[in-house]
Amino acid sequence: MSLAFSNFQDTHSIGCGALQEKTSPFHLISFVVVSVPLVAIDSVYYGRPVLAPLNIVLYNVFGKGGPNLYGVEPLSYYLINGVLNFNVVFILALLAPLAVEFQV
């Protein structure tokens, strides 16, 4: 079992049908270790304080173009391309939630 999944299991429990979250110091430390360099480097590059991932979401999801900016395709397009590009791995990835659900 991977370390990240193990940490997720240790800090999240499922009860009453809802995800009950517990915050550990590891989450805060991870957030700071990733966020501080991200904001610092992006701010130097853009010349002003900026959080680039937030700007990407604001532009692509909530901007004028929205999801239509790059085109919208039917579900069959993504399924066919997933199989063509990733072959068996794509199919196994789609089946992975079932394996986790029925794990004893």
UniProtKB/TrEMBL annotation:
- Gene Ontology MF terms in the entry: alpha-1,2-mannosyltransferase activity
Q: Which GO terms describe its cellular component?
A: endoplasmic reticulum membrane
Membrane topology, as annotated, equals: Multi-pass membrane protein
Task: Please name the InterPro entries in this protein's record.
Answer: GPI_mannosylTrfase (IPR005599)
GO BP, sorted A to Z: protein N-linked glycosylation
Pathway the protein acts in: Protein modification; protein glycosylation
Q: Where in the cell is it found?
A: Endoplasmic reticulum membrane
Q: What UniProt keywords are attached to this protein's entry?
A: Endoplasmic reticulum, Glycosyltransferase, Membrane, Transferase, Transmembrane, Transmembrane helix
Could you tell me the superkingdom of the organism this chain comes from?
Eukaryota
Which residues are listed as membrane-spanning?
A: 28-46, 77-100
The primary location reported for this protein is endoplasmic reticulum
Q: Which major enzyme category is it? A: transferase
Provide the family line: Belongs to the glycosyltransferase 22 family.
Show the PANTHER family listed in the entry.
ALPHA-1,2-MANNOSYLTRANSFERASE ALG9, GLYCOSYLTRANSFERASE
Instruction: Kindly provide the name given to this protein in its UniProt entry.
Output: Mannosyltransferase
Organism, by scientific name, is: Geodia barretti
Lineage, top ranks: Eukaryota, Metazoa, Porifera, Demospongiae, Heteroscleromorpha
